[in-house]
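anyone else get weird line breaks when pasting these?? whatever heres mine. first is seq + tokens for prot A
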Amino acid sequence: MSLKETPASKSRATEVAYNAIETLIATLKLEPGQQIVENDLIQMTGLGRTPIREALMRLVASGLIEQQPRRGLRVSEIRIAEHLILIETRRVLEQLIASGAARKATPAQRAQVLAHAQKMAAAAQQGDIQGYMDADQALDEVIHDACRNPYAVQAVIPMIIQCRRFWYAFQFEGDLERGAECHLKLAEGVAAGDTEKAVSGANTLMDYLVSFTYKVIK
């Protein structure tokens, strides 16, 4: 069996495809309601058909893509009325993840968490949306690794993508600097190993997302 055919390499290819398609959905390059065409995704990502198909099935399971009878796959719609319920559910998971990260992060991870949050703050001051989102994603990845709870992480990631997509769709209502402040509070709690402050930071971030959603609704 060649290296390209090993189960580990196949799993890695699927993960790369999943992340690539997830990013296309979150940034609205694949728009809500858009039909999924495999050949288009292959061209957009440069990946093979098999990992693309496997990634799409995972995205169907997470709710980011919907399977329609006799009509194939399409990107799920942004359901504003349900977004507050999503944040309410995400809050519980974020509290668990923040607490775990504050207790279990390595010294290197604590430093990385703080550095990424500071990058978010700097990008917010400069109005650098892409830099802000890149640092946000990097911050999530370190905290998720640090919490040592793959079940909570697996459950929360689709919700994070839905929130990120919601922000991209309605970013004119957003406040980058306020968002960065919330992330920094969470990061400082994790970096200090202070579970109470980390959980409070997670709650502050969810409160911000709730207020942002109400702005959109109104």
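and prot B, same format (seq, then tokens)
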Amino acid sequence: MDQINTIGRRKTSIARVYFESGKGEVTVNGKSLEAYFPEEIMRTIVKQPLVLLEKDGQFDIQVNVDGGGFKGQAEAIRLAISRALVELDEDNKSPLKKEGFLTRDSRMVERKKYGRRKARRRFQFSKR
């Protein structure tokens, strides 16, 4: 198997994933998965597609991720890994789609408008 490259996005995070067969090592921005995501829940989010398809430990995954916070980055990586698994084998598409791992969450932060304190919050009204 040659290398598979995919991209995942969530909020302002962009994850580029390089997928190849190996021992199951996941490297994020040059660090191990455990060093980059110290919280267990974030590591679980990243590995969800692999655990679902029982392919955890079969691929070496190298990730470059930029922007956003840890949760957005973890979900961007999950989307990219899911897309790579579909590119690897088309039969993986239906279980991943059923769990919602192939859906790009398009929600973004609404921009601040002029004359307002935030995007929708107005300044305090003073009658006098």
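btw re prot B: The longest strand covers residues 13-21. The chain has one domain: 4-99.
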